[in-house]
Amino acid sequence: MTKILSQLLICLLLISCSNSKKINSQISNNTYPVKLDTLELFDKSRNRKIPIAIFCPKTDSKINNQQIIIFSHGYGENKGGDNMIYSYLTENLASKGYFVISIQHELPTDDLLAMEGDFKVTRKPNWERGTDNILYVLNEFKIIKPELDFKYLTLIGHSNGGDMTALFATKYPKLVYKIITMDNRRMPLPRVNHPKVYTLRSKNYSADEGVLPTEQEQKKYGMTVQFTPINHSDMDNDATIDERKIINTSIEKYLSE
User: Fold this and answer.
1) Rounded to whole angstroms, how far apart are CA atoms 129 and 125?
2) What is the 8-class DSSP label of residue 63?
3) Which element (helix H / strand E) includes 35?
4) Contact 111, 95 (CB under 8 A)
5) Burial class (CB in 10 A: 0-12, 13-18, 19+), 257
6) Residues whose CB falls within 8 Å of the CB of residue 251, separated by 6 or more in sequence, listed in order
7) Which of 6, 92, 188, 206 is the most buried (most CB within 10 A)?
8) pLDDT tens, position by position, 84-129
């Protein structure tokens, strides 16, 4: 009963976030004003809070089958609020008609991210927790917002959040339509035809060996690796106007393909 009441409350909070549709692309010629909601979900199976921010187009017109994007932030040393510091991107996507959920993956009580050892091993628990967060949020919204177009789910993540995104696509390829990583450096990108895989790279850091596909793998699986003139740490709201334009334009292009 508590779960049902919680879902009803969330539905009431989200009712103004309307839906929109295109067959494979949500990109619209219209630019909507953006509504922001913040909520805290709770995964009883893990006894874990999952704060989220929801960015959605604000419109009086009903738009059907709105596509959903789940965003995962870079590592923020558990200080919190990191799901809000990519607003130039999440707000832009919402203004184009997408329903964007940005998850706060780190809590103050979490262990800090491993800074030594083989990161594919020592950081795996952090990425696993992130994939569990994504899966929980996805399943919750399938219940409370069933009108969303989950068939075309896109995951986007920066840095450590990009590693979570890559792991999720590796574990649950049938749940995802596209993934876009922003300079993930540790978790290898899945070499698959589905989901579609895109990655934006920074100018100042290299990925670990095996993370990025070779040119042959890019051609074989239709993967996109795009290098940018942007520093790794400047892919959040620290990005300049020109850098934001590069990232927004690139991601809009990926979503439209």
Assistant:
1) 6
2) -
3) strand 34-43
4) no
5) exposed
6) 89, 93, 156, 180, 200
7) 92
8) 999 999 999 999 999 999 999 999 999 999 999 999 999 999 999 9
